[in-house]
Specification:
Layout lengths: L2 E6 L48 E8 L7 E6 L4 E7 L2 E5 L14 E3 L2 E3 L6 E3 L5 E3 L8 E5 L4 E7 H6 L19 E7 L3 H12 L6 E4 L11 H4 L13 H6 L2 E4 L4 E5 L4 E4 L4 E9 L3 E3 L12 E2 L4 H11 L3 E5 L3 H10 L5 E6 L6 H4 L1 H12 L3 E5 L3 E7 L2 E7 L4 E3 L2 E4 L3 E3 L17 E2 L11 E3 L4 E5 L5 E3 L4 H15 L11 E6 L2 E7 L6 E7 L4 E8 L2 E8 L4 H10 L9 H10 L12
Parallel strand pairs: 1-11, 12-13, 12-17, 13-14, 17-29, 19-26, 20-21, 20-26, 21-22, 28-30
Antiparallel strand pairs: 1-10, 2-11, 3-4, 4-5, 5-10, 6-7, 7-8, 8-9, 15-16, 16-17, 18-27, 23-24, 24-25, 30-31, 32-33, 33-36, 34-35, 35-36
Helix pairs in contact: 2-9
Length: 596
């Protein structure tokens, strides 16, 4: 018996000259009536031979059919690129071997029930189709066709597919553009972050071909916001989630530097700050949050930053090089900025009200281990105190005065003391907002107003993992999923959210991965060595594991995420067995079934 794998390649996108149906790049001239809903997928002829250029095809023998047992994966080399070969339930599957998000090797991930989960950030891909099923990331994987002959495994693949290792799902385009009104749209998306973009893309993937308008206060097209603190000197073009041509090709209009001031849900009209009004049929609110500022004297001084844009981040790096930096707040943003600047600045000081960083999120023991890593990299902590004054010299920041009486030299100050939901413009709208300013939605991301959806950092939603408790989960991965669920339910699919939260932070070349929702945990069970920064921490509440974090212990977090996604409960007494079976032996049999 021989196994052959043949790549199935989607037809190439049309040329950049065909960026929109009217042949123009500007989105502002598109006109839609805002009421009709059309469903028309762009048609691609199915060729009998998927390889248009025989010279672009490679074929190689990669292994024997008996080399893989059920539940195993292997990364195989074809000479000009690699593929991921999988065997599950007696069937072979093959697809791209790198996660399209940040390039993680999927062979080191988790295979379970027809999908592979990325070991780094938790994205999931269907092994039969290559489609992305959980996030982060936007693209799917190329899928390769498998054939079995004479007990050898061959892969026949396009060199281009092996090199790109990603696939954008087929999408619809906007149709019937000629007689539409500029001031109306079928779908209006307020906010152009991950939630907004995934919503727009999902609509097009599902065949929606009416007008979609996204608006943002930012000057840029959607970009990878987590990199603002993890890779601070990135240019906007380097961290763009999609190139400009993508939005033109699929008729997703993005209005930059446009702020919505109010929403009239009865008339279905959004009123912009400059007075412009736009009617909508369906509305997604994905405005994210607004950074908190300091309340002390001197908070308006030059060189005091809330990092919100790529320009903020690059400006901080430039001003901090060989200078004295003070960071206020040991938040994820504050700690990541401190780590990034530690090798560039003359000094980095971090001011925090708690006695250890990340105490509420990771617990005291993990927090102390992280704090020690920072101290070993020349970051100085000033804990259990606050800023009382920012002093200036000739209009620029000179010193940061703490309530403890300590005075710190400072050429740059970065504020990372948390954020509040950017929902102030909705106060008189009738949309249900809780006491903290979060938009309340159900499992389908619907608000209390028909046709109005909300997603991302600005919402609270029922988390299946915690018995449908209403929670706010301000994570990049969750924003992606919110956007997808909202889009599906705009199209009346009736899809409920059930994803497991997954996040990561990167500091000094090391990453902490985290899955679950540990709010209110009452104990932490730690396996491994905190001093060596090689550990896994299980967060428990009333004997049940509600979250897990790890450093240098991949892919344990992704494995636990799959357990939780399957509806299983891990008890505190089972932690030793979980670590042994999943990490040391690689046995995934405990994933099957439901219950404890």
């Amino acid at each position: 018996v021989e196994v052959k794998i043949e790549v199935v390649i989607p037809e190439k996108e049309r040329s950049k000259e065909e960026m929109s149906p009217n042949g123009k790049a500007s989105p502002l001239i598109y006109k839609v009536n805002g009421t009709a809903r059309h469903y028309h997928l762009e048609e691609h002829p199915i060729a009998s031979n998927p390889y248009h250029n025989p010279k672009d095809v490679v074929e190689a023998s990669v292994c024997h059919v008996k080399d893989l047992e059920n539940g195993q994966m292997r990364e195989v080399d074809l000479g000009c690129g690699k593929a991921l070969l999988i065997k599950e339930s007696g069937e072979f599957h093959a697809m791209g071997h790198k996660c399209p998000h940040y390039g993680a090797p999927l062979v080191k991930g988790v295979l379970s029930k027809g999908r592979v989960r990325c070991p780094w950030h938790g994205a999931c891909f269907n092994i039969s189709t290559g489609d992305i099923e959980d996030f982060p990331g936007l693209d799917s994987l190329p899928r390769f066709q498998v054939k079995i002959e004479k007990e050898k495994v061959y892969i026949r693949a396009s060199k281009q597919a092996l090199q790109t290792q990603r696939r954008t799902k087929m999408m619809a385009k906007c149709i019937s553009l000629s007689n539409y009104n500029l001031s109306s749209t079928n779908v209006l998306i307020i906010g152009a972050g991950a939630a907004g973009l995934v919503c727009a893309e999902t609509l097009r993937q599902e065949g929606f071909s009416d007008r979609i308008v996204m608006c943002t206060m930012d000057r840029h097209l959607p970009y990878d916001r987590p990199k603002l603190s993890k890779s601070m000197d990135s240019h906007p073009e380097q961290i763009a989630l999609r190139p400009k041509e993508f939005f033109c090709t699929y008729d997703i209009e993005v209005l930059t530097e446009m702020q919505v001031a109010a929403v009239d849900v009865k008339s279905k009209i959004a009123v912009f700050k400059d007075g412009f009004k736009m009617e909508y049929n369906k509305l997604l609110i994905a405005t994210g949050n607004t950074p908190k500022t300091l309340s002390c004297k001197g908070k308006e001084l030059e060189n005091v930053f809330n990092i919100r844009t790529p320009e903020d981040a690059s400006r901080v790096v430039k001003l901090a090089t060989s200078k004295n930096v003070v960071i206020v707040g040991a938040s994820f943003l504050g700690m990541e900025v401190a780590a990034y600047l530690a090798e560039r600045a003359h000094s980095v000081s971090l001011v925090e009200l708690e006695h250890v960083p990340f105490k509420k999120f990771f617990g005291e023991r993990v927090g102390r281990a992280v704090m020690k890593m920072f101290e070993n990299n020349r970051v100085k902590f000033y804990m259990q105190t606050e800023v009382s004054e920012l002093r200036e010299q000739e209009g620029k920041l000179k010193e940061v005065v703490l309530k403890s009486g300590k005075v710190l030299r400072a050429d740059v100050c970065v504020v990372g003391v948390g954020a509040v939901p950017a929902t102030g413009f909705l106060k008189q709208s009738g949309i249900n907002i809780d006491s903290k300013g979060f938009i309340v939605v159900n499992k389908m991301m619907q608000t209390n107003i028909p046709g109005v959806f909300a997603a991302g950092d600005a919402v609270t939603f029922p988390l299946a993992l915690r018995n449908n408790k209403k929670v706010n989960v301000p994570h990049w991965q969750m924003a992606h999923m919110h956007g997808r669920i909202a889009a599906l339910n705009m199209l009346a699919h009736g899809t409920e959210i059930s994803t497991v939260p997954y996040l990561w932070t990167a500091m000094f070349g090391k990453s902490i991965r985290y899955a679950g929702h540990g709010e209110g945990f009452d104990d932490v069970v730690i396996q491994g060595d905190l001093d060596e920064l090689k550990f896994v921490a299980f967060y428990t509440k009333s004997d049940e594991v509600v979250a897990v974090a790890s450093m240098n212990y991949d892919p344990i977090v992704s494995k636990v995420a799959e357990v939780l996604a399957a509806g299983r409960t891990i008890r505190k007494r089972d932690v030793d067995a979980v670590v042994f079976l999943s990490f040391r032996t690689g046995d995934m049999s405990w994933l099957t079934g439901k219950g404890s």
